[in-house]
Amino acid sequence: MAIDLFYTPGSAPCRIVLLVAAALNVEFNHHLVDLRAGEQLTPEFLKINPQHTVPTIVDDGFSLWESRAISRYLASKYGGQSLYPEDLKARALVDQRLDFDLGTLYPRFAQYFYPQLFAGAPADEALLQKLEQGLKFLDTFLEGQKYAAGSELTLADLSLVATVSTIDAAGINLKDYPNVIRWFDLVKTTAPKYEETNGKGIQIFKDMIAQWRAKTEL
């Protein structure tokens, strides 16, 4: 029985789950959730996820949300040892990178950019500097490393690439982070079905940004 996925393709966390599923050859029953229409607030969805967030999966009655938790679950269930290694230290490094993405890099981007995109707030230079610091951290992590957590593609890369591609789509220049650029180019060519799982969602996000910028320039 295929797992039900509730998602919106423009969302970076949702794209993480799509990337992981593609790498594991996991099939989903896809359920698009229109956040602007409030579909995440329906009684039916709230029974599945009281936090009313996407992505959310339902696997034979078992509900789970938070993209990195879903990713770990999928890798553990479907034998993704290369994506989520069993060796304690190797797994701890993947977990650290996942937690860095969840707790530092993606929130710093969201705090800087989303108020501009969704609320018309002015750009905050201090928040941009915090984001740039986060990108510098990632650039340092990648020094001398092929992938984010070693020599193999892991959950860390699939999570971070969804964030970095979103940052890039927002027009934030990565030129000061050569290790990030090298790694980004590598993951785009080695993550299974990258364009299908992440590229299409990035284009949706870019279109949203273009519409916002057109309005602000009137």
TrEMBL record:
Pfam families from the UniProt entry: GST_C, GST_N
Keywords: Transferase
Domain (GST N-terminal) ranges: 1-82
Acetylation recorded as keyword: no
GO molecular function terms noted in the UniProt entry: glutathione transferase activity
Record bears the keyword Transferase: yes
Positions of the GST C-terminal domain: 87-208
GO BP terms in the entry: glutathione metabolic process
Stated family: Belongs to the GST superfamily.
Subunit structure: Homodimer.
The protein's name in its UniProt record: Glutathione S-transferase delta3
